[in-house]
Input
Amino acid sequence: GVSTRTIYRDVGALQSTGAPINGEAGVGYMLDPSYHLPPIMFEPDEVQALLAGLRIAATATDDDLAAAGARAETKIRAVLNDQALARADRSPYVAPFMAEDMNLRDHHRTIRKACEERRKLKMEYGDKGKALTTRTIWPIDLLPWQSVWTFYAWCELREDHRHFRVSRIKGLVTLEDRFPDTPDSDVKEMAKRFSSSQT
Output
């Protein structure tokens, strides 16, 4: 389900790590049969942490991450022994789909991709008093605060960093313009400066 170019790139990446793969593009490749990858071993609590995170991502973020999380869980479960699988099946963490979260999934995807690609967003946003403003923002991080999803961004309108609630977005468009990385994109530093006041 991927392009030929992707295969060539991935084989090259494996070769660069020392995997004994012989051959060339357009002809074929062969892995030395004496080569073995070490097994992936997760500790029990590591499995529970991964599964809990994947379940939360599936319900609280966006559909693309939910699908990726399902694929990741399949891969994780494939390397577990019977005892570890049984414990994974007994995980007490349940992340239900909430109606209000479902309505925000498209916004989550748009903001996440803009953060990854460093693209500006044009946003229609309602403040606490429901007054609407149109802003161009530089999204940096998505942050959950208890039951509220917010994101941290540079706001061109205010010429300052702001926190925005995802639930208050009325319209969102990704722009072609990109913004540079800055020291303020460090979420740890941002969290230290975070106060209870929000835009």
Summary: The radius of gyration is 22 Å.
